[in-house]
Amino acid sequence: MSDFLSAYSIQNWLESCPQGYLDGTEFGHLPGEGEPELLLENDILREDAIATTVQMVVGERCALAASSGLINAAPDEGSRRYLATQTLDEARHVEIFTHRLYDLGVRKDQLEDVIRRYANPNLVRFAEVLLEKVDRKDFVSGVVGQNVVLEGMAFSVFEMMHALSSELNPKFGRTLAGTIADERRHVGFGENRIGSLLKQYPEKKPEIERMQKEMSYWMLATFADSFRHNQTQAEMERLGQERPHSDYQGVDLGVLSPEQMEDVLADTVLKEFKTRLGRIGVEYQTPARP
Ligand SMILES: [Fe+2]
Ligand SMILES: [Fe+2]
Question: If DSSP states are collapsed to H, E and C, what string results for 5-41?
Answer without folding.
Answer: HHHCCHHHHHHHHHHHHCCCCECCECCCCCCCHHHHH
